[in-house]
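Hi there,

I know you've been waiting on this one. I reran it after we fixed the sequence typo, so this is the corrected version. Both the input and the resulting structure follow.
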Amino acid sequence: MKNLFDIKHRVVVITGGTGVLGRAIALHLAEEGAKVVILGRKAEVGHALAADIKAAGVEALFLTTDVTDRARLEQNLSDILAAYGRIDALLNAAGGNMPGATIAPTGTIFDLKTEEFQRVLELNLTGTVLPTQVFLRPMVEQKRGAIVNFSSMAAFRPLTRVAGYAAAKAGISNFTAFMAAEVARKFGEGIRVNAIAPGFFLTEQNRALLTNPDGSYTERGQDVIRQTPFGRMGRAEELCGTIQYLISDASAFVTGTVAVVDGGFNAFAM
């Protein structure tokens, strides 16, 4: 019987591939036999990750990128096609936040810095739209492919502080649904667009917000734990199964969805 979750030899492009979550996903997909293309800004980290994957006998490629720079992404596309000749899946995992796009507990909406708010929208939302435009092209030619965008708990409910980030992630969820219908109607059912919404996972971006220097949870971290029925933060590797499902034939009739991986955070109301 065919293994519906088989992704061997598929070329998977991961933006934000040098982050904590991107790295874990890249390593897992490589273990499953995928050819992983890691895109990121941290060259030293990216090359080291690609070397680790290659050492295990699997093909991997790292390319520096800027998800808000179309010319750089077009060059990435040319390099990927020169190396592998195709793209089977795109994971839009790049993103981030800025202090000026948040509102502190002691602040108000008037303290929001609109320049940084705009930058957060550009990095997260436009930084999903541009890679989609660029890396979708070979999928259209192949009449086959899968795109997985990265949404957030902040897209479902208005979390405090993260005004810019939440707005961007809500936009990504909407863009995912829009693109699912757009590509299916115009290019056929072979191309699917979904999103994953991670709950709370400790990353470089949020560690200082959720934990103290001694490793204990901050007040906000404690709030997250109280809201999460599992009573803990997620582990990066716990995203991998859902990602593999969404880029494999196991989800052949799934498009336009946002898959939640959150330990029950979004389902629970205190």
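Quick highlight: Strands lie at 11-15, 35-40, 60-64, 89-92, 145-150, 191-198, 258-261.

Best,
R. S.
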